[in-house]
Amino acid sequence: MNAMKNSPQLVLLVLVLSIFAFSCKSTKKIAAANAAEKAKLDQENLRQQKEKDDELKRREAEENSKQDEKSALKIMKENGPKVKLSEYFDAIANSGNATSANNSINEALAMFASAEGTVLIIISEENGKKDYDRPTTIKAYLNYLKDQKKNINSIESLKVDDSGKITELELRKNN
Question: The whole model's pTM is what?
Fold first, then answer.
């Protein structure tokens, strides 16, 4: 009889335990589902962040490439006249005949604002102070190259006017 009296309590206890057990399983399932969803979201966020980082790196590389191109163009623009003029100097000095040398002289003179453009030749330099030979003109220097048949000076620097013509040339005497 005692068992009968305790029956409603027992049923209630079993019912509470069952609800608790099912709710724990549901909570575990929900927690597992939430963990899986969180992991999926984390992976998606990582993928999106990686895409953003990759795009940023690509843009930086593209910008650096543009800067490198600009720098290369600037160097070519600055050194282009030097290289061309140096080639004329060599052609004049190594010319086989006067006609060929005169043609190279005329082509070289076209690079200058005037045939009277100043040519300075550095003969020595100490502590940043340059010592120059007597100044001459480009026309006289080109004829000197033709007569001497050797080019013993290298181009140190040149100044150009607004139209890109050379106005002053600085050479360095090679030893």
Answer: 0.58
